[in-house]
Amino acid sequence: MIARIRLLGLMVRPRAAITMWTFLVIGLARHAGPTISVGLVWATVALAASYAVATSVNDLADVEIDRTNGLRDASRPLATGAASVADIRWTAATAGVAAVAAAIPLGAAGLAVVGLCLTVDVVYSATPARLARRWTLAPVALTVAYVALPYALGVIVAHGTWGRADVPLVAGLCIVFFARIILKDVRDRLGDAAHGKPTMLLRLGKSATCAVSIAAAVTGIATVVVAIQPPAPIMVALALDGAAIVWMLARLRTTTDPTEELVTIGTAARAGNALLIAVIAWLLLSAQGATPAQAALLVATLTAVAAVGFLDLALRPERARVAYKS
Amino acid sequence: MLGLVAILVVLNIQDRNGETPPTSTFAAVGIAISVVAIVTVAAAAHAAGTTWRAGIALGGGFAAIALAKFGMGPTALYQGNRVHPIENVGGLTSGGMVVLIAISLGALYLAAIWLLAVIFRPAQPPDGPRASVVVGLIVLAVAATIGTSIFVSAAASQYVTWATTGLEATGIAVALFVAAGLLAVAFRDTSLRSKTLGQASMYITVLWVAVAFLLVFQVLWIVFLLAIVAIWPFKSVTPK
Known about the structure:
By secondary structure, chain A is mainly alpha-helical. Chain A has helices at 2-12, 14-30, 39-61, 63-68, 77-80, 85-103, 107-125, 138-157, 166-181, 189-194, 200-204, 206-228, 232-254, 258-287, 292-315; one strand at 321-322. In chain A, helix 2 packs parallel to helix 14 and helix 3 (39-61) packs parallel to helix 7 (107-125).
């Protein structure tokens, strides 16, 4: 039993779950009052459990592809043989129950959003829908699951109401995430090609995929800036993050070494994280009544720290270590 | 040794005429300590085996931090305290409060130095501190936040308000950016351990900025939590 509970924890894949949580927090920050309710804890548990369902169902569906791609790290227990099909089915079922249970304190709206999350988790990987095998729908489904639904959960935690002002922000965030998620298949293209899994990368080629990603990143960031209307210094910080992302994507377009490709994508993701953190900082501080100067100083400090880490990796990619979201 | 020199400089540089020191005293102290910092840190770094260029860059970074901590920071606190007295806890006198704050800060610095010592153990992997060290840093930040909230919340609030608005904020920001830039130059030119030293120094400094902000806007714990997750491990990237 303890081994299965440990397996459940493994399937949450904290780093990826935190990415989803970031969008939940943006929804919360957009509607935040002076205090944050305990609902954040329930929403976090529900989201993490929902993600464990997604990873479990996906691992069951793609085990052969994962083995072809050589994914033998601890976060892929089915591919490595550390867990059986029955074990992974158990984690999917248990995590699903946990997600629903955690959503109950959030009320009917919370239950509805978590229910949608679970639905997307299943239809993305499992037959008959199996959206992961439809190269045009797969990134859209992932964008909804990672961005729009967590954002909606954040609005519920803040006891807010979805309004017209949310639309441009969610749209911008979705476009930025889309720019990122269409690159996820770079690592797995060998296995995807061998097993006939269609992806945008395999259909359009790397150069075109990078071009789409660059266009989406620029459009998404501009939309986010228009949506949150930050003061000029924060706008500059967001623009710097955007420039860093475009720089890495342009490098990715011309890079041929597989390891360097992965490092470039990961480095661009770091700039993307800095952008999201800056957005959260501005939204939270403005909700708390902070002055634009205070918010600008904090965002400048955070951007400076992120820039040091980013430049270290961008200028010396050979020193980076490729890790996975375990 | 640097701390002793700092105390001597502060004691000798202050203007003893009048009941309250002029604000320029803090500026003078900041500049003096910056000079002391750049010389001692550069010499220490060079003695530890780094190149002179890296040592001077590291010293310059610490000098900029010293300027912010010894000059701008105390001026901010002084400006705030001039309008509202530091909150009195448990019936302590003003002098008692100063001693209490000094002991609290001294303990925090000792904890930070201990953590740095743990980080720089030769057996440490090159990808940054272990999870236990990061947990220690978070505990330290939380302890500092709670401790300082209890003892000096009003003064800290005044300090942050003053230090993050107007021309002074620009000064502090510039000082910290210069520090970050010079430290970045330092890691470029030094050996792996020296680079780790520079990076850790910057993160410790940012930790203090974070603590100051957390005092006023507690909800920012979310931002700092995400920031820590985003930058750590320092050299790892996740492509999927």
